Amino acid sequence: MQEQIRLALPSKGRMEEETLDFLAGCGLRVNKTNPRQYTATIPALPGVMVLFQRSRDIPVSVAAGDVDLGVTGYDTLAESSAQDSDSVIVIHEGLGYGECSLVMAVPEEWDDTQTVADLARRAAGGTLRVATKYSNLVSRFLAEAGVEKVRVVVADGALESAPTVGYADFIADITSSGTTLRENRLRPLDGGTILNSQAILIGNRAALVSRPAVLEATRQLLEFIEAHLRARGQYMIFANMRGSSVEDIAGRIFSQTDLGGLQGPTIAPMITREGSGAWWAINLVASARQLYDAVRQIRAIGGSGVVVTPVTYIFEELPERYQRLLVALNGKE
Q1: Which of these, 35, 181, 232, 288, has the minimum number of CB atoms within 10 Å of its CB?
Q2: Do 14 and 92 share a domain, yes or no?
Q3: Is the full-model pTM beyond 0.85?
Q4: DSSP states of 100-130
Q5: Angle between the 212-231 and 320-330 helix axes, to the nearest 10 degrees?
Q6: CA distance linking residue 321 with residue 218, whole number of Å
Q7: Same domain for 205 and 159?
C-alpha cells in the first residue's frame, strides 16, 4: 500500500484561491470536487492527500507532525510558536504570491506621529492601545524599537475600524496595496513595517528525515514549482532563416543584443518540399521584457515565420532549493 503524504493548504479567502491557482499553474491541479470538503487530491502526485486548514493553524500542524508539508504565509509562521521550533523547516521561502506587509498604521489626523520614534514619544504621554492579530510580532517589534506604554489588544476581523469604534488607538495589520487603510483614514508609519510576507512551503523535519516518501514528494513539488517560477515571463520564439551554414546563422544571431536564449539558440536544418536547401529553423527563449526587441532583431537578420509561445516550465538540474534542503537535513555543507 502506498504511503500517504499529508499536505496542508489554506482553507479560506484569497490565500486559498491564489494557492490553488498557483499549484494549477505548476501542473499540480488540486482536485477539490466540493467547495465544502476539507480533503482533496493532486492527480499529478497520487501519494499526496491535501488537507485544508486555516493558514494560522498550518505551522502548528506541521510542527506537531499532524501534516508533513504545508503552504502558508510567512507572516503566520513568524507569528506562530512553530517559528522557533526545530521541527519546522522552510523548504521554499518565496512562492511568488500572497505578497503583503505587516505594518503599523495610525489615524491620518495624528499629524505629529509620522515615524516609530514619534509613536514612542506619543505613547510616553499616556498608554496607547494597538489592535492586531499578530501579538507576538508586534510586541517584539515595539520592544526592539524602544516603544513603551503600548498595550496590545488581540483582535480578529476588520481591524481598520478599531480606532473609530474605540477599542484601540492604532492598528498593526497586513496590507497589500494600502487601499483599505486609506479608505479607513489610516496611514502606515515610516519605519513601521514589521515584516514582508508571501506564500512559503514548509515541512516537518522529522518526516523529511525518516520517511523517504515524504522527501521524494517534496522533491517532486520543488521540481514543478521551481520550473514554473523559472518560466514565468519567458517566451519561446521559433523562426525560419535562410543562410549558407549554421555558423552563418549563429553569427547573425549573436550580432544582436537580445537573442542569446538560455545558454544559446538552437539552430537546425529545415526540410522544405524542395529539399533541405538553405533554410534553417531557430528557436530561443526571451523574457517578456525582451520579447518585442527580440522579434524585431530576428526580422532584421532575415528571420521570417516568427512564432511565439509562453514557456510553462524550465527544468534545470536538481532544484536549487532541494539541494539546500538536503544540506539542512543532513546538517552539513
Answers
A1: 35
A2: yes
A3: yes
A4: EEEEEEEETT-TT--BHHHHHHHHHTS-EEE
A5: 150
A6: 10
A7: no
